[in-house]
């Protein structure tokens, strides 16, 4: 097994998953957003905290034009009973 690469400056979820970069699973955010009944969700974090990567993950999950179901294999969202 090849060692995982450190994704310095990469905020494209698909690239991280397909090219073997180290990734801390934040896919639970998807379930949180789906079960939240608010009209607006505001995500505030400091600079370089993964906001763009989170939006890229959400885009890959929800955009039906992107055919990439394997991107979420082995992640937390895949094992959710309510998916």
From TrEMBL:
Domain named AAA-ATPase-like: residues: 7-81
One Pfam family cited in the UniProt record for this chain: AAA-ATPase_like
InterPro entries according to UniProt: AAA-ATPase-like_dom
Domain of life (superkingdom): Bacteria
PANTHER family per record: AAA-ATPASE-LIKE DOMAIN-CONTAINING PROTEIN, CONSERVED PROTEIN, WITH A WEAK D-GALACTARATE DEHYDRATASE/ALTRONATE HYDROLASE DOMAIN
Name this polypeptide is given: AAA family ATPase
Lineage, highest ranks first: Bacteria, Bacillati, Bacillota, Clostridia, Eubacteriales
């Amino acid at each position: 097994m090849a060692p995982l690469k450190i994704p310095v400056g990469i905020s494209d979820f698909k690239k991280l998953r397909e090219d073997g970069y180290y990734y801390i699973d934040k896919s639970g955010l998807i379930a949180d957003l789906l079960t939240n009944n608010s009209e607006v969700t505001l995500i505030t974090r400091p600079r370089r905290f993964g906001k763009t990567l989170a939006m890229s993950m959400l885009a890959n999950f929800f955009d039906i034009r992107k055919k990439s179901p394997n991107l979420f294999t082995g992640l937390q969202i895949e094992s959710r009973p309510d998916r």
